[in-house]
Write a structure and sequence with these properties.
Aminopeptidase, 27% helix, eight-stranded mixed sheet, six-stranded antiparallel sheet, 10 helices, single chain, alpha+beta
Length: 335
Amino acid sequence: MIKNLETLCNFNAPSGSEQGLRDYILTQISPFADCKIDNAGNIIVFKKGNKTPKYCVMLDAHLDEVGFIVSAITPEGFLKFQTVGGITDPVLLCKNVIINNKINGVIGCKPIHLTDSDEAKKCPKSDAMYIDIGAGSKQEAEKVVNAGDYGVICGEFEILGNNIKSKALDDRIGCAVLIELIKTYNEFDFYATFTVLEEVGSRGAKVAAFSVEPDFAIVLEATTAADIDGSDETNRVCVLGGGPAISFMDNGTMYNRSLFNAANKSSVPHQIKTAVAGGNNSAAIHLSGNGVKTLAVSVPCRYIHSPACVANINDIENTLNLTRELLTNICLGEI
């Protein structure tokens, strides 16, 4: 699973440009399940098991990652851009980027010797930055890049002890776990959805849940960990190595209490996410149709939405184990 995660992370698939990653995932799962692509671009999967479950269950992971979109080209050949998804300004500055999977560049801003004293004390805003692709004029830049083209910040996949460092761990971790379940889980029928456009408002998940009409949903995600120097115990939210994080509430969802309790009673290592913050596809899924009993199971991730996210390998494996256990218990009618 970890080797496949590396392949998944190396795809560049910002919101609205998930096609290449979607095609790869289809090659991985098509031999094991029935797959279709809906009009939004989601992959809808039905995995036939050995038994029919008591309830219809949907497991979800999103395909897209944060990135940017080219908004304009200056007369000098620099690219102006808008971020796609939640990227903070300090993450952007001086980073290597790739546009359309082929054009390399770097994010720059006004040189330090041209800034006044107040500007020099602050991180520039993204609207003051630009992408330098080495073009000498607007006409030269337009030969390879146009307004509306997508890009991502580059970030290499590396093993750091028992941790992984990479771009796009949010949510290629969820995709890797879901692929593994499709390949190996055979006890009960279930649905799986690989959804688009999560980073810009869970738009794909809304469509997917409407199509599947599940009774229960488990959303596989990555979530912010703040177990770093200078962060006190109450602000750490969740920690690497503590197992998948189980949420009771975030800014978009009040999670189903029966699912939350079942996850919290599991013998699989896990932890409670100790902050009501953020959100994910659960916000759209749990309000679909007649309502869906929903839980998010998330891998703690440092430096999320950056080119150097860090997550723990044991947490990823235990996310797979916990999800498998919850899926079986739901299908048996024990939750």
